[in-house]
Specification:
By secondary structure, this protein is α/β, with parallel strands linked by helices. It has a single domain, classed as 3-Layer(aba) Sandwich (Rossmann fold), CATH 3.40.50.1240. It is built from six helices and six strands; from the N terminus they run βαβαβααβααββ. A six-stranded mixed β-sheet has the order 3-2-4-1-5-6. It is globular. The chain starts with a strand and ends in an 8-residue tail after the last strand.
Amino acid sequence: MAKLILVKHASPQIVPRVVSHRWVLAEEGCRRCDWLTDELTAQGVTRLYSSLEPKALETAALVAVKIGLAVEPCRDLHENDRTGMGFVEPDVLQRRLREFFAQPDRTMIGNETANGALRRFAQSIRNIASKAHGNASAIVTHGTVLSLFVAHHNPIVPYDLWSSLGLPSYLVLDTTSFAFDGKIHNYPDRAPTC
């Protein structure tokens, strides 16, 4: 099976006065990329793609340097469009994301519906998968769009998947069918999930 590995970026430095799509990695996030490097090496990754958001690009770059791969930044792998949205406390964000996943045709958070984000993200994933040629490719992206995509192709609730993802974490999908084996690979500070 050719593998498509969807990676949620490492932990960012949360700065309330800076919009989330401009956050960079925290020192701990940089350190956690060592684990991710070992994991992606073991998965046999030969191509590494990334969202253009700094926290994803930094995660990919730290891994790429150690594996010896080039990072291929791609448009449309970013989180749902949250332009103009200020800082939201974690408990409020969690409630709003539950609504976002439950009402995919309504703009619940930011400027993009869940279905709009899914369509954009899925097209980019299909383009990447078409270039895999039997090799393992990894895509460093974001929890919300990753969860939407996996849930669209598998019997899983997107909010439940989103809330189970660590920083960093990854899932392995089949490149052709996008079938998910059910295993979430989280950084070890988080309890393993199935």
